[in-house]
Description:
There is one protein chain. The radius of gyration is 25 Å and the shape is elongated. The chain contains 5 helices and 8 strands; from the N terminus they run H-E-E-E-H-E-E-H-E-E-E-H-H. 36% of the residues lie in helices and 19% in strands.
Amino acid sequence: MNGNAIKDAAGQIKQKLIDLARLKLGENIAYDLVAKNKRVYLELRPERGLSYYDLVKDAIRANDGVPLSGVGHYTPHNKGMISPAYGMGIMAIKAKVDRETGHVTAQDVLVVHDSGQIINPLGARGQVEGSIHMGLGYGLCEEMPMDQGMLLNPEFVDYKILRTRDMPEIEILDVPTFEPNGPFGAKEAAEATIAPAAPALANACIRPVERSSSATS
Length: 217
């Protein structure tokens, strides 16, 4: 939903730049203008055009130094829910359990994730990895003890989060799909991977104990 709203706002700014380019290139231009490769140029005469940099600079100068802005919104229709689309995927975690101390170490994480059409691969991977970090933190160390409504560890000195060296190896497999309700076919790339992290970790820790109990009995 945010992506569609951002797309709407960005489209307004794009139109402002195209209008300015049309004015600077000649008011009576009959050709359509194209915004591509960091330029706005005539569709039938690509050599005639202006760079984004020059257009933005001139637009801000003409607006008394105020940056260009747009206001976008998006309301999903005919869905019956707040979100127009949901990411899908699976997660598997390999964990090591110290049977004497109970200490749990997440060793490997495999995620197969459907984010629709991925626009920014590096950004999408960062979102998924960050979500795994949050989910593992919920399951391993991010305790919030209270005493009469007061939080006892309000600072990161005592509120423990996973550090870089604590993170497991993460393998992400993207499932290419196209979501018609998303911006350019995209869907979310983070929320769906927070929820299964702690349950998958718990499942990895419980199963060895179950097998041991079964063998003993």
